[in-house]
Amino acid sequence: MQSASTDQLQERLPGIFSRLQNVSEEGKLKSWSTALSTYFITVQGKTEESVDILRQSLTALHGAREAEKMTVTIAESWIAEGKAEGRAEGMAEGQAKSALKVLKSRFGEVPAGIQKKIMELRDAGRVEEIFELALTCQSLDDMQKAL
Fold first, then answer.
1. What is the 3-state secondary structure (H, E, C) of the chain?
2. What CA–CA distance (Å, rounded) separates 122 from 130?
3. Distance of alpha carbon 82 from the chain centroid
4. Over 70: is that where the pLDDT of 10 sits?
5. Quick check: 114 and 140 in contact, CB under 8 A?
6. What is the mean pLDDT of residues 122-138?
7. Which pLDDT band, with edges at 50, 70 and 90, does 112 fall under?
8. pLDDT cut 90: percent of the chain above it
9. Cα distances (Å, whole numbers) of residue 102 to 97, 116, 144
10. What angle do CA 103, 84, 40 make, to 5 degrees?
11. pLDDT tens digits for 35-50?
12. Where does the pLDDT of residue 107 fall: very low under 50, low under 70, confident under 90, or very high at 90 and above?
């Protein structure tokens, strides 16, 4: 499914948000606005241009002050998401380094190809599997085959 062009979104988004004006309950209006905003940014991407389009639409619906609060809240969620991803990547990297230390202590120097493949792993579950294999494999060849 292709995403709409920026021009198409600039044209359509205010109309979509204006339909939300029929929502009478303020809490539901904000919930719908937030959900729609999150969807829009997910589809369109986290770009300055996307945020500007979104801010304009939110301003038309909620006013400038509330639109700014909502935009900041969305940005804060991105920051939290980024921090969580960073922590997960850091943990995976730490476990990959530990796997290499285990291999080195068990078998001596670890070939550069194996080191590279282990350090390129990004999936936490896969890194954990490799760490466990580092503890139990019979040879570096076994590790190479598993990578």
1. CCCCCHHHHHHHHHHHHHHHHHCCCHHHHHHHHHHHHHHHHHHHCCCHHHHHHHHHHHHHHHCHHHHHHHHHHHHHHHHHHHHHHHHHHHHHHHHHHHHHHHHHHHHCCCCHHHHHHHHHCCCHHHHHHHHHHHHHCCCHHHHHHHC
2. 12
3. 6
4. no
5. yes
6. 92
7. very high
8. 33
9. 9, 15, 15
10. 130
11. 777 777 776 777 777 7
12. very high
- State the burial class of residue 37 (Cβ atoms within 10 Å of its Cβ: 0-12, 13-18, 19+): buried
Q: Are 133 and 125 in contact (CB under 8 A)?
A: no
Q: Is the pLDDT assigned to residue 1 strictly greater than 50?
A: no
Tokens of 66: 């509330």
**The token pair that represents 124 in the structure block:** 């936490």
Distance CA 48, CA 92 (A): 30
